[in-house]
Amino acid sequence: MVYFLIPVYIMKTRIGILGLGGVGGYFGGLLAKTYFNSDTIEIIFIARGETQRLIKANGLTIKTDDALIVAHPFLVSNDPEAIGKLDYIICATKTYDIEESLNSIQKSFKKNTIVLPLYNGVDAPERISTMYPDHEVLQGCVYIVSMIESPSVIRKIGPFEKLFFGSPSAPMNRLKELQTIFSKAGIESYLVDVIEDKVWEKFIFISALASATSYLDQNIGQIIATDASRAIYVELLNEITMIAAVKGLNLPNDIIMQTILKLEKTPHDATSSMHRDLLAGGKFELASLTEFVINEGIKYEIATPTYDKVFTKLKALLPSESNSY
Question: pTM (2 decimals)?
C-alpha cells in the first residue's frame, strides 16, 4: 500500500494597519513585533513614500520612556495586489483621510473583512459603513500620548495606554479573536458591551482638549495652570457633555470632573495631535473634533457658543492641501 502525504495549509489571520502615526504606529508596532514569525498571523503595514521605504529598510521604531522597540511587519506596501485580502483592517489615519485611504485599498476587502477604526472623532464608523455597507465596522477608541518623531519612528510619552473596542452586531467569535490577538501582543485592550458610551467618553476628553489647545496655542500644563484657559476648557466640556446627555448616552454623572482628572494625569508638556498638526502648518482634524460638536448641537438644539468661537478662529487657519497617510 502506498501512502501519500497531503500538505496541510493553515489559513493565516491577516491584519492590515492603515495609518502609522502615533496610534497606528504604536499598536501596529506591538502587533508586528509579536507576530513577526507567527505561523497563524500576518501583520501588514499599509504605508507609502518615505515611511514605507524606511520601514522596509530598518523596521518601525517605537521609543518609550524606558525602552526601544524595533518591529518588522510581514509586509509594508500600499499596493492592494501585493497586500492581498485582509481579515481585519485597523484604521488610524487622520479623520480627513478616511475616504481616500480606505478607497485606496478597496481590493483588499473580502466578504468578511472587519474594520476597527481608532480615530479621534466619533463619526468614523458611520462614514466607513456608508462606504462599505456589507462589512462589519466596529467602534473603538484609545487613550495614549504618542506621536511621529520622524518617518518610521514613534515616540510614546508616559505609561498610560488603553484600547477599547466593541460592536452590537459583529460575530462574538471574531471580536474575541481580535481581543486575544491584542492580549498576546501585550496591548491593554478591553472588549466593551456598550461601546458607544465608552467612545463618547473618550470623545468628550479629546474634543475639548484638541479644541482648547489649538485655540489657545497652549499645552496641557499651560491650560491647567492658567485660570482663563482652564475656564475655556471647562466651558467646552459643559457644552459637549450636554449634547451627550441629550443624545441619551449612559455616561458617569461626574463625567466633567473625571475628564479634568484625566487631563491632570496626562503629561503636562504634551498637547493634542490637532494642536501639533496646526503648529506644523498642515491639515488638522477640525471637522471631526470641533465642527462635529457644533453640528450635533444644532441637531439637538443645544447652544455651543464656546465651540463656535473656537471653530471660527481655527477655520481661518485651515490649509487646503491634503496630507499623505
Answer: 0.90
**pLDDT tens for the chain, residues 1 to 325:** 555 555 545 689 999 999 999 999 999 999 999 999 999 999 999 999 999 999 999 999 999 999 999 999 999 999 999 999 999 999 999 999 999 999 999 999 999 999 999 998 999 999 999 999 999 999 999 999 899 999 999 999 988 899 999 999 999 999 999 999 999 999 999 999 999 999 999 999 999 999 999 999 999 999 999 999 999 999 999 999 999 999 999 999 999 999 999 999 988 999 999 999 999 999 999 999 999 999 999 999 999 999 999 999 999 999 875 433 3
CA 274 vs CA 33, 175, 285: distances in Å: 28, 30, 6
Secondary structure (3-state) at 292: helix
3-state SS class at 308: helix
Which residues touch 255 (CB under 8 Å, ≥6 apart)?
201, 204, 241, 244
CA distances from 172 to 22, 87, 136, 139, 324 (A): 28, 15, 12, 14, 34
Terminal CA-to-CA distance of the chain, rounded, Å? 59
Instruction: Return the beta strands (E) in the chain as ranges.
Output: 13-18, 41-46, 60-63, 68-71, 75-77, 86-91, 109-117, 136-137, 139-150, 153-166, 189-191
Report d(CA 99, CA 65) in Å as an integer.
35
